[in-house]
Amino acid sequence: MGATVAEQKAALRAVIGNPDQSAASDRVVERLVDFPPLFGTVVSYLAMPTEIDLRGIEDLDRVRMAVPRIDEANELVPHLLDRTSLVRHPFGFDEPSPTAALVPLEEVDVVLIPGRAFDARGRRLGRGAGYYDRFLTRLPRGVVRIGVATDDTVVDEVPTDDRDQSVDWLVTESGVRRVGQDLQEASLRVVDAAVGVGIAAAPIRFPEGTKTSKDAARAIGCDLGAIAKSLVFRVDDEPVLVICSGDHRVDERALASFFEGERATVVPIGEVKEISGFAGGGTPAVGHTIRLRTVVDTSLGRYRWVWSAAGTPDTVYPVALDRLVAATGARVATVSKKG
Predict the structure, then answer these.
(1) Is the CB of residue 168 less than 8 Å from the CB of residue 145?
(2) 5-180: what fold?
(3) The CATH number of domain 208-338, selected from 3.40.50.300, 3.30.365.10, 3.90.960.10, 3.40.190.10
(4) Helix, coil or strand: residue 69
(5) How far apart are CA 324 and CA 277, in angstroms?
(6) Which residues pair with 86 in a beta bridge?
(7) Model confidence over 94-137: pLDDT tens digits?
(8) What are the two backbone dihedrals, phi and then psi, of residue 321, each rounded to the nearest 5 degrees?
(9) Half-sphere exposure of 227 (CA within 13 A, CB side)
C-alpha cells in the first residue's frame, strides 16, 4: 500500500528541512516591485527569522498593506498593517493586535503566500496546519495568489489532496512567473499583455467551451452578467472594442453616438481575428494586434469581479473591473440594453 498524502508531505518536509530563506529577501522584493499587478490591497505576512521578509514593499504608493492574524475561530483574518501595534503569537511569530483595523475579504486584490515548497503547477507545501488553505477558499476567485519562495524550494511535485489550495503565480529571486495550467500560444500572449498593463491574468481552461457568454457562465458557475464579453464593432470605418455584460446586448445607436459616428455595426466573426489578432469567441480585452479605442459598458458596474476571455474559445480569467478599465484605457458609458 502506497504512502498517504500526509505521509508524502511529511517526507518532503523532512527532505527540504527548514532552510534560511532570509538572504533572498531583497532580491524577491525587487522582483515584486517590478511586477505591475502588485497593486491595491495586498495581504502579505510578517516573516519569521528564516522566511523571506517582504517589508520592502510596504512603502509602495500603489499598495495598501494588510497582514493576517489568527482569530478566535482559528482562522486567518487580514488587518491593516501597523508595525507599532504588533503582538507576539504563542507560536512565536508577530501578528496584528485584535484592535487593528479589519480588511474585508471583498477588498483584497493580492495575497502573498509563504510556503515550505511549491511546484510548477502552483501546488504548495505549507507547515501542516491548513491556515492558508482555509483562508484562500474564503477569498473571491479573482484575488491574485502569489506564492513566495526561493529557487531551491521549487520542487518537481508537491503532493496534495482536495483541501489544498494552489497559487497562480510564483515569485522567487529569479522573478515572477505564472504557474498552473498549460496554455495555448494565444492565451500566453494575453497573459503577457495583461501583466504589462497591471493585470495578473490567470486563465482557466474549460474543455466544455466558453465561446458564448452563456457557455462561459455555465462553465464557471457565475452570473451571466459577470461575463465581460469583448466585442469588435465598426463605427463608420473605425474598429472599436466594446466590453459589455453577458446579459446585455450592444445598442448600436448608442455606440455610434458615443464614438461620434454615424453608424455602428458588429464585425463578422470571420473578420475578428484579422483586426484583433484573436479568433471570435475568445477575443480578449487586451493584447490586440492594433490599438482599439475601447468602451466599458455600465452594465458591468454591478460587479467588482468579472470574467474576461483569454484569447481562445475555452479560456477565461477573473479580473477586478476597475483594473480592467484602467488597463484597457477604456471610457465607461451606457452603450447597451438588457437582453
Answers:
(1) yes
(2) Rossmann fold (3.40.50)
(3) 3.90.960.10
(4) strand
(5) 19
(6) 96
(7) 999 999 999 999 999 999 999 999 999 999 999 888 999 999 99
(8) -60, -40
(9) 29
Write the single-letter amino acid at 106.
E
Q: Which three cell numbers stand for residue 188?
A: 500566453
Question: Which DSSP category does 77 fall into?
Answer: E
Q: How far is CA 82 from the centre of its chain?
A: 26
Residues with Cβ < 8 Å from 310, sequence gap 6 or more? 183, 187, 190, 191, 201, 203, 282, 284, 316, 317
DSSP string, 194-230: HHHTT-----EE-TT--SSHHHHHHHHTS-GGGEEEE
Element (H, E) at 133: helix 131-137
Conformation bin of residue 287: beta by default, left when phi > 0, alpha when psi is -120 to 50:
left
Inter-residue contact 173 to 151 (CB < 8 Å)? yes
Dist CA 228 CA 311 (whole Å) = 13
Cα 304 to chain centroid distance, Å, stands at 13
Which residue in the block uniquely carries the three cell numbers 501546488? 123
Q: Which residues of 128-140 are buried (b: 16+ CB within 10 A; e: fewer)?
A: eeeebbebbeebe
d(CA 267, CA 300): 22
Q: Which of 204, 184, 128, 210 is nearest to 161 (CA)?
A: 128
Question: What residue spans define the domains of the chain?
Answer: 5-180, 208-338
Residues 240, 233 contacting (CB under 8 angstroms): yes
Quick check: helix, strand or coil at residue 297? strand
Give the phi and the psi of residue 219 in degrees, each rounded to 5.
-70, -40
Report which of 283, 300, 294, 319 is spatially closest to residue 246, judged by C-alpha positions. 300
Contacts of 287 (CB under 8 A, 6+ apart): 189, 190, 192, 193, 194, 277, 278, 311
Q: Is the model's pTM score more than 0.90? A: yes
C-alpha cell at 300: 458591468
Residues 176 and 167: their CA atoms lie apart, in Å, by 12
Torsion angles phi and psi, residue 19, rounded to 5: -65, 150
Using one digit for the tens of pLDDT, what is the confidence trace for 11-21?
A: 999 999 888 99
